[in-house]
Amino acid sequence: MTRDRYQPVALDLDATRARWMKRKGFKAAYDALADEYAALGELLRARQAAGMTQADVAERMGVAQASVARLEASAGSRKHAPSVATLRKYADAVGCDLHLTLTPKPQTRRASA
Hints:
- This protein is mostly helical.
- About 55% of the residues lie in helices and about 0% in strands.
- The protein has a domain at about 35-100: Orthogonal Bundle (434 Repressor (Amino-terminal Domain)).
- α4 (about 55-60) packs across α5 (about 65-75) and α4 packs across α6.
- The mean pLDDT is about 90.
């Protein structure tokens, strides 16, 4: 009797995203969440650059690890948006400053009538 050996399948995110982009409505929904994905990416990059786990961040913030997990997950969700105060506490915990910026949207040119 032979034993099956676990052989994980590599996930090619770029190929998977390209395949999904062909689905009707996916690109519009994906693009609508660009800011949320960017925010999540910033949180994760900052924590990883600090060499910290969610438990480490939670300890510094004075909250449960589950709260940090929820915070990081909420960056990709429009249901539970974290407050600026919470984001500031997270930034302090990972040794970062929080900067929020507003940038003008590109103006569309109006056709002359």
